[in-house]
Amino acid sequence: MRKGLLVVVSAASGAGKSTLCRLLLQRRKNLKFSVSATTRLPRPGEKDGREYFFLSDAAFRAMRARGDLVEWARVHDHLYGTPKAFLSLMRARGKDVLLDLDVQGALAVKRRYPEAVLIFVRTPRFADLKKRLRSRLSETETQIRRRLKTARKELRLARRYDYQVINDRVPRALKQLDAILKTEAKLKETDHG
């Protein structure tokens, strides 16, 4: 049995990454979602253990101190990290694991797991990203400006990813993501088959 793929998807806030990840998980039964831990508060509709493990600062720091995180980062005044137990278990069972991470986290995973497949989702134009963030109506103008500043940095780092997918239309972007995973799985089988 092949060891599962480690697939990391990143994007600037508002590029449609969460929607694409959700649809990709529905489409690919061998793909399991790695739930990250965070110290931020849940957004409406989010559930602990599904989108994130919502932790106190103290609980997060304890996990980090024990070495229970593959990576961690401070993003927009909150801590985020990837618990490593789930990744190891799923990959050992031959399951592909999808991580929804920011750029800092993705690059940290790539350093630790060079075989990880990094995919950056972007909008066709930066103006599209601004429009999407403002249409959410869930953040203040100050928060939006901060996210846009971060997005500019993330877009510069996107060239370090294995793939970039333009999300101009969800069905097209989803098809591209699916094709990337199929290609990577075949490459892995060829390398280890």
Kindly describe this structure.
By secondary structure, the protein is of the alpha/beta class. It has a single domain (6-192), classed as P-loop containing nucleotide triphosphate hydrolases (Rossmann fold). Helices cover 47% and strands 23% of the residues. The chain has 7 helices and 9 strands; from the N terminus they run βαβββαββαβαβααβα. The protein has a 5-stranded parallel sheet, sandwiched between helices. A 4-stranded mixed sheet has the order 4-3-6-5. The radius of gyration is 16 Å and the shape is globular. The N and C termini lie close together (9 Å). 33% of the residues are buried.
Rg estimate, integer Å: 16 Å
SS field, number of helical segments: 7
Order of helices and strands: EHEEEHEEHEHEHHEH
Helix vs. strand class:
alpha/beta
The CATH architecture assignment turns out to be 3-Layer(aba) Sandwich
Describe the structure concisely for a colleague.
The chain has helices at 17-27, 57-66, 84-92, 103-112, 126-136, 141-157, 170-192, and strands spanning 6-11, 31-34, 36-38, 52-54, 69-75, 78-83, 96-100, 117-122, 163-166. It has 193 residues and is of the alpha/beta class.
